[in-house]
Amino acid sequence: MRETDSVSKCKGVGAKTAEAFGRLGIETVGDLLRHYPARYDAFAPAAPIGEAEEGKIVTVKGVFLTAPQANRFGRLSTLSVTIGDESGRVKAVWFHQPYLKNTLRKGEQRVLRGRLVRNRFGLTLEQPQIYKPEDYETMEHTLRPVYGTAAGLSGKVIGKAVAQILDEADLEKEYLPSEVRSRYGLAEWNYAIRTIHFPPDRQELLFARERLVFDEFFLFILAIRRLKEKKEEISNPFSFEKNGWSEAIVKGLPYELTNAQKRVWGEIGQDLRGKRLMNRLIQGDVGSGKTILALLALTDAAENGYQGALMAPTEVLARQHMESFTEIYETYQIPCRPILLTGSMTAAEKRKAYAAIANHEVDLVIGTHALIQEKVVYDKLALVVTDEQHRFGVHQRETFSQKGGTPHILVMSATPIPRTLAIILYGDLDISVVDELPKSRLPIKNCVVDVSYRPKAYRFLQKEIEDGRQAYVICPMVEESEGLDAENVIDYTEKLRAALPPAIHVDYLHGKMKAKEKNERMEQFLRGEIQVLVSTTVVEVGVNVPNATVMMVENAERFGLAQLHQLRGRVGRGSYQSYCIFVDGSGEGENNARLKILRDSNDGFRIASEDLKLRGPGDVFGVRQSGNLEFALGDIFTDSRILQAASDTAEEILEQDPELTFSEHRPLSERLDRYRKESFDRLYL
């Protein structure tokens, strides 16, 4: 087997299983090798039931003292049994698993492993895994990989396929220069890829991970540096002499631009009138006023006879931009003509839009990925504004150049990244920072709590909703996942419906839903038809819902601080006081040092900086940061030391050998070419 072979080459992977792998984005053997474990289970010896710690994942061994009992609370079905030993007893509860009734028998001895929580059933083991004592003994003191799964695909099947590949495949040959590996003490690649999947212990796991994280950053930075060279060669073909329309908008606004906005607007203006095409990133905290800067730049393009395009991550947000831009143009009598273009429009609507764009009957096109579909042809396209979810590389620029111009690019990012890291990661872009919030924004009130606070939180949600407001509840998973102990959207929605009055409409949203269904659900929330939206992090690039005042995040310890800060930015957008409740499922509650940073500050850049200081290289599992710079393993905060090393190495090698033609760099050149084809486009474009 080779890395380019189809995953169906693995034993036991038939058409249906291959289709399930496809749902995880796994098509080839190489894809599967890079589907790293989401986490690892460390199987500790069973503890006496009386000594099990509340709020922690615990393992207990005992005898079932009762027969399993099935119950139903509204749409929530449960199965419970009491297990005991000489030190005590505890109730174990499973949700929506009635089939277990036939496998749990009174008097049998079993090992149960799950989180011990206090809920409506009292002190409870929630959703524990069940083992025969002799089976569990073979697993004690080991690290077992836990993979992200999909419908029709278990972690066991993934693990078996990975093990077969590692035994049989013709794997990657080492391509890093030996001097680089020696300097940073990096593992050999084949050892690292084997160990990341099946580590003998934690120390070797960290050793393997460091090598693979270095590779992710190193190849990404090399590719970024190459892009920057190409971009710097492009001269500015546009003339931006007029700016009367944008000046009229700035003078007419009911508020004054902050000093930070004025500074960044000046930098954008210099770019638009400069000798080279603009490639600029605007970094700004949630609510700092980046969108008005985008509007001003697009308005300048229109006044000077050009077209502009604004690409949003969701159709609902694209519509919101369309409505707010149109309102501003009408209010200040600016003759700029915007049009909306999204994938859900009918064929007739799209044809009409294509014609209007091609004939320059419109100046500004607002939409989603539909903006770069093959049927769209622009007339004198001078500026494309996008958000970090759609970073633009050479392919998009080439696509736009074929559609009517090689445009200026302006990227907006709400991910707070310390400037030292941003310079490395956005090496192809000039960086502007909007580091000031409008004075009119009410600061969000934050709290960090443990799971025992939930009943009080639900009462608070109910009060806010009865006052006419709305709320988000975020869970880390879509549905229950094998071996992952965390709240999931599907079950949590049922729990919340049971806990809140029937008059309160609770519904869910997650990334696995079809695009049309997601849009409809967000529109319902925007219209106030849904009062509580239970969601995964898909809402972090959601819409502006001024009526939403509560953000409650379950298992907050599982998210990176940058991501939690962006989620918090979904509330506080209206004139009402807003609140954020971070529920720590680890048992630490308000003593969680990382979450304290969020509790004490609403400043995204300060949070990012403090997070960088606090987190160490060993703190690498179960926490993800946010933004489109989602590497498979690397975390730009936790792994900032490795990121800097990768950046230094890339710069040093390119200075010596810009085209990577030296004999010692040929394996690296081949690996970089493959990386750009297989991975970089997916991450960057």
| Integer average pLDDT | 85
Question: Radius of gyration from the CA trace?
Answer: 27 Å
Cα shape: globular
The fraction of residues in strands falls at: 15-25%
User: Within the largest sheet, what's the order of strands?
Assistant: 11-12-10-13-14-9-15
Note the total helix count. Answer: 22
Helix content: 25-40%
Distance between the termini: 29 Å
**At the third CATH level, what is the topology name of the domain at 445-601?**
Rossmann fold
Structural class by sheet pairing and helices: alpha/beta
In CATH, the architecture of the domain at 445-601 is 3-Layer(aba) Sandwich
Question: How would you summarize what this structure contains?
Answer:
38% of the residues lie in helices and 19% in strands.
Note down, in words, how this protein is organized.
- There is one protein chain.
- The protein is of the alpha/beta class and 685 residues long.
- Among the domains are: 1-40 and 143-171, no CATH class; 44-141, OB fold (Dihydrolipoamide Acetyltransferase, E2P), CATH 2.40.50; 445-601, P-loop containing nucleotide triphosphate hydrolases (Rossmann fold).
- 38% of the residues lie in helices and 19% in strands.
- The chain contains 22 helices and 21 strands.
- The strands form four sheets. Strands 11-12-10-13-14-9-15 form a seven-stranded parallel β-sheet, sandwiched between helices. Strands 16-21-20-17-19-18 form a six-stranded parallel β-sheet, with helices on both faces.
- The protein is globular.
- It starts with 14 loop residues before the first helix and ends with a helix.
- Residues 616-628 have low confidence and may be disordered.
